[in-house]
Each structure stands twice: as C-alpha cells, then as structure tokens.
Design a protein that fits this description.
The complex is a heterodimer.
Chain A: H1 34-51, H2 88-123, H3 125-141, H4 144-155, H5 159-186, H6 189-197, H7 201-237, H8 249-256, H9 265-292
Chain B: E1 24-33, E2 38-47, E3 52-56, H1 63-69, E4 78-81, E5 84-87, E6 90-91, H2 97-103, E7 108-111, H3 115-118, H4 125-135, H5 141-154, H6 160-164, H7 173-185, E8 191-195, H8 203-218, E9 222-227, H9 230-236, E10 239-244, E11 247-253, H10 254-259, H11 264-272, E12 302-315, E13 319-332, E14 336-340, H12 347-354, E15 362-367, E16 370-371, H13 377-384, E17 387-390, H14 404-414, H15 419-432, H16 449-461, E18 467-471, H17 479-496, E19 499-504, H18 507-513, E20 516-521, E21 524-530, H19 531-536, H20 541-549
Parallel strand pairs in B: 3-9, 3-10, 7-8, 8-9, 14-19, 14-20, 17-18, 18-19
Antiparallel strand pairs in B: 1-2, 1-4, 1-5, 5-6, 10-11, 12-13, 12-15, 15-16, 20-21
The chains are: A mainly alpha, B alpha/beta.
Chain lengths: ~300, ~575
C-alpha cells in the first residue's frame, strides 16, 4: 500500500540517486468542485435578480391580462402565465428579492440576537447563564414553524414580521453555539495573554473573545440563510408573508394550488426557484464551513 | 546527493559480529511525499542483532519517517524507494500490507513518543498489551494474561496485576511509557524501534526509561532509537547517525561522534546544548564567546517578591490538591531567577501567581513593592506593564486572527498609542528580536517555532517591562533554535536590563541562564541559592536525584571545566 518501488530501480545497476524520478507529477489534480461552481454561479444570478430584476425581465410582474390566463410556457411567456394572466418568469425573477431579503435579514438578526444572548450567558455569571439558557430552552421547546406562526399571529402578517418571527426561532441555535465558543475561547492562552498586557476584562471580551467566537458562527449562519428562506416561503405559502400582489415564491405556490389540475407551470417554476435557492445557499455555506474548519484548501 | 554510502556505519561498530544477517539492512533509502517533499534522501542503515543504533536530528530531518519506513508505516502519501530494504530477513521493498502485519509486533516492536495517544483510551492496559499476541495468534488466553503481567513486571511497573486492569489515563506518564514499551516487546521481537521515547517525560522518569531500554538491550533486543537529544542517545546507543534534511551527515560509534564530531552540523548541535561548559558563552554560532556576564549583577534592588504563597485546586470534587505550598522568592533587577522542577511541581502555578493570573489563597506577591491584592483594578492593569510573560507555546498565546504586527503592537494599543504611531515601534521591536520588518504582515501560523517565540518576546518587550516571566520558553524548540532564543534572551537582558523569572524542567537550560535557582518539588521550594552552588554542591536529596538523572554527553575531553564553580 504505502511502499512502491519503481521497477526500473530494482536490481538495476545502482543508478545515481539523483536520477530517481521523485515527486513525479501525479495525474491526480484537485478536482474542480462542479457543484460548488454551479452554486456560486446560481447564487450570483439570484443576488443580481434580487438587486436588479429589471436586468432579467422587462415585464411588469403585476401586469394582469385577462386574455392570457394560465397559458403554458411559450416564447412570449417563458414560464407561462398564472390565473390572472401575469408573466410567471417575471414574477419568479421579482420574487427573488423578498425571498432573499427574508432569508438574509432573518439570519442576520438571529446572528446578532444569538451572539448577544450567547455572550450574556457565558459572561453573565451563574445567574445570567441560568436565565438566558432557560429562556433558550423554552424557545427551543416549541416547534420552530409553530413559534413563527404564533409571533406573526400576534404581530400581523407581512415581510417585516416574517423576518422577526424567523429570526426569533433561529436565535437559540446561534446563542448556544456562541455561548460554547465564548466559554472555550475564554480559557485559551491568548485571552490570558491579553489580560497580561493590561486590557480590562470587558476589553478582552470585546477584542479577543467575541470576534473569535463569532467567526465560526457566521459561517454557520450562511447555511442558516437557506433554511430561513425555506421557512419564509412556508410562511408566505400560508399567507403570512409579503402580502399580494407582491411577487413571492411561497405565495405564488399557494395561489397555484387551486389550478394544479389544469396548469403545472404556476406551481413548478416558483417551487424549483425555492429548491435551487436553498440548495445553492446551503452548498456554499457548507463549503465555507469546511474551509473554516480547515478541511479543504483555501 | 550522496552516492550510496560506502560502508554502513553499523558494520564498523564491532558489536554483534558473526555471520548472522543484520535485522535491518537499508541502502540508499529515499522517501518522498506526494506534495513533493523529499523527506529522506538516500540514507543507509544497518542494525545487527542485539545492537543499539540511534538516529539523531532536529525536527524535519527525516528521522521519524526513516523509522516508520522500516515498519511500512510511512503513510499512504509516501513513496519509499531503496536499493536494499532488508527488514528481519525480508525484502521489504514493495511489501504488501498483509506481509508487513506479520513483521510488525512480531519482528519489530514500535514505540511512539506520545504514550497517551498511542494507547487506546477505552481499553485496559493489559488488553492493549496482549493485542499483539492476539494478532499473531501466539499463546492462549491464560498464557497471554500471564505474559502481560510478567512483561509489565520486567519493564518495572509496580503492581502489574493492578496496572493491567487499569485504563491508560489512570497511569502516570512514566508508567504509560513503560506500558507502551511492554506492548511493543510482548511478542519478543528481535528489534525495538523507539521514536522519541522519553521526550515527553520528566528527567527522573526519563532516566528510568533509558535504564529500561539499556536493560532490554543487554537482554539481546536490538534497538533503534530516534531522538532529537544527543545526550539521551549517548546513554544507550552504540552507533549514532546524525540526520539533517533527509541525509545522514555523520555516523559512527557514539563516543567517537560525540567526542570528535567531524561534520560542522554535528559540531553545532553539540555546541548548542546548554551544559556546564557552555555557561557564559553563546550557544549559537556567529560570535564565539560573548563577554561573560557578571556573575550576579548585584546592582539592582528587589523588584519582585513573593511571600509564603499557597494555592490549592479542587480535584474530583472534594479532594484538594496543594499546587503551591509556602513558596517565597525574590527577584532583583537585571538578574535571572531560574525555577526548576518536574511536571506537577507547581512551577507554572507560581508563574501564574506572580503574574496575578491567579490569586494566592495565602501569601502575597509584590511587584515593585506593590502588592497585587491591595491594588484596584486600574492600577493593577497599569502594573501589568512591568511584568510580562513568554509562554511555552507562543502560537496559542496569540489571537489567531492577528498578524504579527498587530500582535506586537497590541501592548502599545493598551497604552493608548494611536494606530499610526505603533508601526515604527513595532519595526524596532521586531528588529530587536532579530526579525525582518516584513514579518509584521505575516500570521504566526506561517512562522517557524523559533520565529514565533521571537514574536512572543517582541510582544513581551513592547511595554518596556522590567520583569519577564518565561514559562518553559524553549521546551518546544529544537536544540539549535533553543540556542538562538537563549542567546537572544541573554542579549536583551544585557542591553535592556530586564530581569527574568525563568521556568524550565531542563536543568541544562536552567544552569545556563540563571544567576540564582529555586528547585521545586510538590509545590514546595526544596532548595534555593546561587546557581553554581546548587549545581556543584546540591544540599537536598531531591536536587541530587535530579542532577544525577540528567543525561550528559559525558565528554571525555580532559580539562573539562564542568567541575569548577567560579
């Protein structure tokens, strides 16, 4: 297994050692990670669509046309039209914005909240830790989607409240992670070294502990974005997300339900969009995670 | 690259002659790794039955890879080639894995450095040891158990029945190493390969293990000892091969190599060892003898004092471990106070108490006449500038996100120096410790061990402290790098007048750097005094034991200045 001897060398009349073809270039080159490249490309497209949907389609996503209801995919309407005669391609493109916004904003908010709670739990002494940790336990004990539903039921539907709801249910995970990281890092030699340099405790925490604790959590949050987009679409599907006529994938899915027997396209295209987005973000997030853990070359 | 060496050194050693085939006969061994590293470049090695051979070199010299190649464990990424690779009478070139398995354990016992990592934590010691017998289908169950007990007794493990039934973590480092050696010996292989078998051990335990190895050798087992430590090797080996960058630069009978080294690298290695004869001289090449330091710079007043320190830790819930028990010490400006002791002696806890990383339960520490305990938080922080620290492992003491420049500049940031004004001072500090200014942009992980320790020293110097506590600062370094760092510390002391509390388990290093020495054991100071007095006329039994346990090169050169205290 580990030992190979080049056949030419065995028994040959002692060739000069320098001539031994060492470190010969092996045929194995680092494989191009196809999935990753595709994901990055797709992600770039998604972000572009979210920021500037006008680049991809000139059609107004809300322009209804009673003449063209539920027409199948064609040259004029690539993804067909929905029950109101609106262009589904345009709606899918314009739907990228709200979906990504909900995913990214909810994850970012959860990250901030989670970090704050995590640091509080780790640094707040026994009482602080008890209070925060039990609060997180309570949040975690309720199924996530149900909790988000509750929050939106209380605050009313809409994009902002979806973000709040999703952020709240993702917070405990980040908080626990940050707490653990802070506890781990607090015990490391470089933190003690910083104390030895003369920083005060709060300064040490701010300068050394928190930045190092948050690093791995941020990476994890990119994976969380994918999950948050999924939850966001679920909420919209239930009619609790961005309100009509805003183009949003989950809401589009919901309204397509009634026509599924006669038209597949109003359901399939937003569905594929959601699937691809979650997949893409997750693939990229996992890659970042592997990289942060040093398991793949940079 | 050298042509195949003419005569392998071993054959000259006049040990175990006879027509018998050597156990190991290697000619022109090359090991390359897939990433292009050419770790071993044409070395030749011969080990006769019952002979003891050592390979000595610094990290990266290829010594461990050589040893692993002899048991087919160079790894899947390695390409091993040789003109001759005869191991236990088998041509081991292109040997299939299942054939290697018949050799390992049965023909060759292999002992790794990390005794804890090499023993399965979930398995009792006895089961671990009898594993080899099981793998080779030797003896039945009862005989195996009996053999394990017998062997543990042979390698000097007290209460072998009890120990065999315990888990690795329940054994001390020395016992673990013995158990590991026992597991390598259990099938009675004619050759034992030991890779740094004593490196992680205290000096007294090391002496026991070396004795054990010598005893095995006397009993007829051939040894291949891999070590970075020439002194360790000199105790056991008949023949030494000195490796550097994958090549053997010198080989021959041990005494001959040590007493009359031919190759400049060997000469440098030997010169770099801090020992009695080298005190007051530079250890690294460059300048020969530096101006001998004044024996005791009595000029300085006391700048650090500790009185009757006591610190305990709770273990297993209610039991108390007294880590430091009634330790007092005094450090004068510009001098070096060495603290020497074995692991668990409490020397590192003393360092932490001095630095006020921990508060003592009893006693007090005064820096510059100010007692840590009486200061408010602010003054405490200000006082920290006066007393800095250098750790054994600098990498762990740096924020992993920081560049070298930011690390060295951090004490300046603490002092409120604006960012822009830090750069010139950082450059100056780096220069002081012999690093190029470009290093400021690099990350510590990209630096070598010696460079990292220089960065740590630069950071410690940044607040212009009067005291630096050095906690095993050179223990993780190769001897030639260690020499450079020790020289640097000496230079800085001379130039800046900084005082050191120098903590080490290494008596040679302590002797080299110290003006005065504390010897610690079990949390207490058993002896203290002037370094020459302690090393030449130790009063306490424990100090004598320590000194006796230190392996020395036993230089036979006549007028050795070892025995003349100034």
């Amino acid at each position: 297994m580990s030992t190979t001897t080049s056949p030419g060398l065995v028994g040959a009349a002692a060739p000069p050692a320098a001539a031994i073809p060492f470190a010969r270039p092996r045929a194995r080159r680092t494989r191009v990670p196809v999935g990753l490249v595709l994901s990055l490309l797709l992600l770039a497209l998604l972000v572009a669509a979210a920021v500037a949907p006008g680049l991809f389609t000139g059609t107004d996503p809300n322009a209804a046309s009673a003449a063209d209801t539920l027409t199948g995919p064609s040259g004029a309407h690539w993804f067909g039209t929905d029950q109101n005669g609106r262009d589904i391609f345009s709606r899918v493109v314009h739907g990228a914005g709200p979906s990504l916004l909900i995913g990214v904003a909810a994850s970012a908010l959860a990250l901030v909240l989670g970090t704050a709670l995590g640091v509080l739990a780790a640094q707040g002494g026994r009482v602080g830790d008890r209070v925060v940790s039990r609060l997180l336990d309570v949040l975690l004990s309720v199924p996530g989607l149900l909790l988000a539903l509750l929050i939106i039921a209380a605050l009313g539907p809409g994009t902002r409240n979806s973000i709040l709801g999703i952020a709240l249910i993702s917070t405990p995970g980040y908080a626990r992670l940050v707490r653990g990281e802070v506890l781990r890092i607090r015990g490391s030699a470089f933190v003690e070294a910083a104390v030895g340099l003369g920083w005060s405790r709060p300064q040490v925490v701010l300068r050394h502990v928190v930045p190092n604790a948050v690093g791995p959590v941020i990476v994890l949050a990119t994976i969380g974005v994918g999950a948050a987009i999924g939850v966001g679409s679920s909420l919209s599907f239930l009619g609790l997300g961005p309100q009509p006529p805003t183009a949003e994938w989950g809401a589009m899915l919901a309204s397509s339900r009634d026509y599924l027997s006669v038209a597949w396209w109003p359901a399939v295209f937003p569905g594929v969009a959601i699937t691809l987005t979650v997949l893409t973000v997750t693939v990229v997030g996992r890659r970042l995670q592997l990289r942060a853990e040093g398991r793949v070359a940079r | 690259m050298s042509a195949p060496t003419t005569t392998p050194g071993a054959s000259r050693a006049a040990v175990a002659p006879g027509a018998d085939e050597p156990i190991v006969d290697v000619r022109d061994l090359h090991v390359a790794f897939r990433d292009g590293a050419h770790a071993v470049r044409g070395i030749s090695l011969r080990i006769e039955a019952g002979q003891s051979v050592a390979i000595v070199g610094e990290s990266g010299s290829g010594k461990s890879v050589t040893a692993r190649s002899l048991v087919g464990l160079a790894g899947p990424r390695a390409t091993v080639q040789a003109q001759r690779l005869q191991v236990a009478g088998v041509d081991a070139r292109d040997l299939a894995e299942h054939r290697w398995r018949t050799l390992r354990g049965r023909q060759i016992g292999f002992v790794l450095q990390d005794a804890l990592g090499s023993l399965d934590p979930l398995r009792k010691v006895g089961a671990e040891i009898s594993e080899t017998l099981l793998a080779h289908g030797l003896l039945d169950r009862h005989e195996r158990a009996a053999r394990v007990i017998e062997l543990l007794r042979d390698v000097g493990v007290p209460e072998p029945e009890l120990r065999a039934a315990q888990y690795p973590h329940q054994l001390s480092g020395g016992l673990r190493q013995r158990a590991l050696i026992a597991s390598a010996l259990v099938a009675d292989p004619p050759l034992l390969i030991a890779d740094e078998p004593t490196t992680a051990l205290d000096v007294t335990v090391q002496a026991q293990i070396l004795e054990l190895l010598a005893a095995r050798r006397a009993a007829g087992t051939a040894l291949l000892l891999i070590s970075h430590d020439l002194a360790v090797v000199s105790q056991v080996a008949d023949v030494v091969h000195v490796m550097k960058d994958g090549e053997v630069v010198e080989h021959g009978p041990t005494r001959q190599v040590l007493d009359d080294p031919q190759h400049p690298y060997t000469q440098r290695l030997i010169a770099a060892i801090p020992a009695a004869h080298a005190k007051g001289t530079r250890l690294s090449p460059g300048s020969g003898v530096c101006a001998p330091r004044p024996a005791a710079p009595a000029s300085g007043g006391t700048i650090l004092e500790a009185h009757d320190l006591r610190k305990t830790f709770a273990v297993d819930g209610d039991r108390e471990l007294v880590a430091v028990d009634g330790v007092s010490l005094e450090l004068r400006a510009g001098e070096t106070l060495g603290i020497v002791g074995e692991s668990g002696s409490g020397k590192s806890t003393v360092a932490r108490l001095l630095l006020a990383f921990e508060d003592p339960e009893e006693g007090r520490v005064e820096v510059d006449g100010r007692d840590w305990a009486t200061l408010d938080k602010r003054t405490r922080r200000d006082l920290r500038r006066e007393i800095q620290v250098i750790h054994q492992d600098p990498l762990s003491a740096f924020d992993p996100r920081y560049t070298v420049g930011r690390i060295v500049g951090e004490p300046l940031a603490v002092a409120g120096v604006p960012r822009a004004a830090r750069a010139p001072r950082v450059r100056e500090l780096l220069e002081q410790v012999g690093l190029a200014p470009e290093v400021a942009g690099r990350r510590p992980a990209e630096l070598s061990g010696g460079q990292r320790q220089r960065v740590a020293i630069a950071r410690a110097l940044a607040p212009s402290p009067r005291i630096i506590v050095c906690d095993e600062p050179v223990s993780a370094l190769d001897v030639s790098i260690q020499a450079q760092v020790l020289d640097l510390l000496a230079d800085l002391q001379e130039r800046l007048g900084v005082a050191y509390v120098f903590i080490s388990h290494h008596l040679g290093v302590i002797y080299h750097v110290s003006d005065r020495v504390l010897v610690m054991k079990d949390g207490r100071v058993v002896e203290e005094g002037d370094v020459e007095a302690i090393f030449s006329r130790p009063q306490h039994e424990y100090t004598r034991q320590l000194l006796a346990a230190v392996p020395t090169l036993e230089r036979t050169s006549p007028a050795s200045p070892t025995e003349e205290p100034s």
